[in-house]
Design brief:
Layout: H1 2-24, H2 28-38, E1 44-45, E2 48-50, H3 57-75, H4 84-93, H5 98-101, E3 108-110
Antiparallel strand pairs: 1-2, 2-3
Helix pairs in contact: 1-2, 1-3, 3-4
Amino acid sequence: MEWAWLHAYSVFRVLLLMGTHLEQHGVAQKVFELYSERVFSLAVFDGKRMDLSNYDYVFAANHLVGIANRVKERHATQRDRRMWTFYALQALTGLYEQRFKKYFEIPLVAVL
């Protein structure tokens, strides 16, 4: 079941990266709700499951873009051709600053 958990977490991060694009097309919240109900809520590991029922996905996705752009401005050189998504992944994993990571942690609940 650990693999299912890791895959669900990876999908969660990809959805965060795609959030602003999905929002431009007016489907961000619906897509996230679909994944929350059909994928994330089924991912169980170590007696816990993901509970994203109250997660503000659109805010988190927009916040991630803002953080990524600020980190890129601060750490990138003029010749850096990395896309904002590179810095977004760094923010998600906490490699640049640990304080960003808390915004993207998945709420967990015990499985009864």
